[in-house]
Amino acid sequence: MLKRLDRMVTLYVPLFTAMLFTLLPFYWTIVTSFKREADIVKRPILYWPQPFTLENYGISWVAVGFSKFFKNSLFVSFSTVVIVLVLSVLAGYAISRFKFYGKRAFLLMLLCTQFIPGAMLLIPLFLIFKSLGMTSNPFSLIITYSVFQLPFNAILMSGFITNIPEQLEEAAMVDGCSRLRAVFLVIFPILLPGIAVFTFIGAWNEFLFGLMLINKPQFFTLPIGLRYMQGEFNMAYGALAAGSVISLLPVVVLFAFVQKYMVQGMAAGAVKG
Predict the structure, then answer these.
(1) What is the mean pLDDT of residues 45-54?
(2) Shortest CA distance to 165 belongs to which of 31, 247, 270, 38?
(3) Fold of 64-267
(4) How confident is the model at residue 272 (pLDDT cuts 50, 70, 90)?
(5) CA-closest candidate to residue 65, choices 223, 217, 262
C-alpha cells in the first residue's frame, strides 16, 4: 500500500500537474471562443459559456477574413511539405546509401545551418526578396520555409533510411523498378507521415518571417491574421479566441489522421518472404 501511494505521488501527481498546465490554456481558449463578448470580461468569471454562441466564429471567419488567411496557410504549408519531402528524402537517401567525397563535410555543413538563428537572417532575406519583387508574395514564404527546414529534415531522413533494410529496395529493383522508383515506392511511404506532419506544423505555425515578408492582408497566413486582430486600444477577445481555435483544428485533425500511419512507418522494416 505504501509503495503504491509512493508511486502515485512520484509519478501521477507530476504528470497530472504537467497535463493541467498544458491543457488549461486550450480549454480557456475554446470556452472563450463560445462566449459573448460581454461575458468574457464579466465578473465573477464564467468558466462555461452562458449562453453558448457561435457569433465569434462568424466574425473571425467572415468579417476579419480568416477564410482567406486559412487558404493562404494551407497553400504555403502544403507547398512547403511537397518541396521538403521530395528534396529531403532524396538528400537523406544519398547521404545514407552512397559513399562520396566530402560526405562528412557536407553533413557538418548541414548541421551548422541549425546553429544560425533565423532572426539574424530576417533583414538579408527581406532585402533579397525586395530586390526580386517578391515581398507580399506567398512564394517568398514557401522558399524561406523550405530552405530553413530542408537541412534538418535531410539529416533526419538519412538516419531513418539507414535503419531501413536495403533488401526492401533490392526486392523492388528485382521486380523491375529503377533505384529512383524504388525510393519513391518503398522508402517514401514509410517516411511520409512523420516528416509531413512536422514540416506542415513548422510552416503552419511560423510567424516571424511571415510578419516581415507579407504586408498585404490578402496574403496573410493565420499567425499573421491573429496578430492583425490585436488592436492597440480595442480587442475582440472572443473573435481572437475563435481564430486561435480555427488555426489549431487542422493540426489536431492531421495528427489524429496520421498517428496510426506514423506508428506503422516506425514499425516497418521486415522483408516479406
Answers:
(1) 86
(2) 270
(3) MetI-like fold (1.10.3720)
(4) very low
(5) 217
Mean pLDDT of the chain: 84
Assess contact for 55 and 170: CB atoms under 8 A: no
**3-state helix/strand/coil string of the chain:** CHHHHHHHHHHHHHHHHHHHHHHHHHHHHHHHHCCCHHHHCCCCCCCCCCCCCCHHHHHHHHHCCHHHHHHHHHHHHHHHHHHHHHHHHHHHHHHHHCCCCCHHHHHHHHHHHCCCCHHHHHHHHHHHHHHCCCCCCHHHHHHHHHHHHHHHHHHHHHHHHHCCCHHHHHHHHHCCCCHHHHHHHHHHHHHHHHHHHHHHHHHHHCCHHHHHHCCCHHHCCHHHHHHHCCCCCCCCHHHHHHHHHHHHHHHHHHHHHHHHHHHHHHHCCCCCC
> 242 near 60, Cβ under 8 Å?
yes
Whole-structure pTM value: 0.83
Domain residue extents for the chain: 64-267
Picking from 228, 189, 202, 92, the residue whose alpha carbon sits closest to that of residue 148 is 202
Q: Indicate the length of the chain as a whole number.
A: 273
Higher pLDDT, 268 or 108: 108
HEC secondary structure over 207-232: CHHHHHHCCCHHHCCHHHHHHHCCCC
Q: Which residues of 74-99 are buried (b: 16+ CB within 10 A; e: fewer)?
A: ebbbbbbbebbbebbbbbbbbbbbee
End-to-end CA distance of the chain: 50
Cell (9 digits) for 102: 566530402
